[in-house]
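Researcher: Structure prediction, please.
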Amino acid sequence: MQPDKNAKVRATIYLPSDVLDEARDATVHLAGYPARLTLTQLAENAFRAELRRLKALYNNSQDFPRRGEDLRGGRPIAA
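Model: Predicted structure follows.
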């Protein structure tokens, strides 16, 4: 059985506090009608928009190759 591509999974990320505070403010302000925005929706929209931009800029608008293993915490990978 294939895993559901749209299933939500928990992810822990670290953001600058001012970015997270602004995102929370926007979410509270837009939580009601008509936007009904959640912090999860805001983050998902931001990730999708940035992934589209990165694909266009670095990968001829194609999906990036699947990774062979999970990301490790710590310093960024040097290219």
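Model: Residues 58 and 79 are 14 Å apart (CA to CA).
Researcher: Thanks, that helps.
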